Amino acid sequence: MTRSGLARHLKICPKRLEAQAAATAATATAKRRGQTLYHLQVQDAYDGYFWLQLEMRGDATLYDLDYYLRAIWLECCGHLSQFKIGSRRYTEIFEDGLGIGDEHSLDIAVEKLFMPGMEIPYEYDFGSTTELIIKVMDRRRGQPTTPHPIVLMGRNKFEPPPCTECDEPATYICTECTYARDRYEFCDAHARGHEHEEYLMALVNSPRTGVCGYSGPGLPPY
After folding, report:
1. Of these four, 28, 72, 99, 213, which has the most CB atoms within 10 Å of its CB?
2. All domains of the chain, ordered by start, with CATH?
3. By percentage, how much of the chain surpasses pLDDT 70?
């Protein structure tokens, strides 16, 4: 499905509705109150090729969302990151109080911030920056379907480009060749012995591919 098609489908997906019903039934005897859960669509800000459909607990924090995005898509060298919500920037606040302006802590529950229809810019690494857009697609009241703060409901299907030298799917990207030629992806066979072998990086399902020291995994953390 397309990004928007899957976002619509998730509202009526039979398997998704079954999971929600099972979560409600499992907590009925304990009389546990439900909470607000948010459907988030996260995509790269460049062209939207890479995207995630997430459901996030309202009592989870921006720190939880930052951790998840780093784990599945971004983390390479421990760079700083930030969310921009309205006129405020939310980022890691250090004990020494050093910062770059009027910053707010990531330790805040998203139910205090998120509203359907919001579009939230997010940046990872203020040097070789990867920019994302987080869209609050919808919210529901109920029980979470997992014990984790965030659940992955869907993501883009990654289709590697063909190798520069042949038609096999590429598995590596050469960061040096990006400055000198139009094509710079190579399959396993043509990656071996490439003139810039020390600059080869894994080609993975992430908008951070080929940037800084990122080499994956491009997998959900749980």
Report:
1. 72
2. 3-155 (3.10.290.30), 158-211 (no CATH)
3. 94
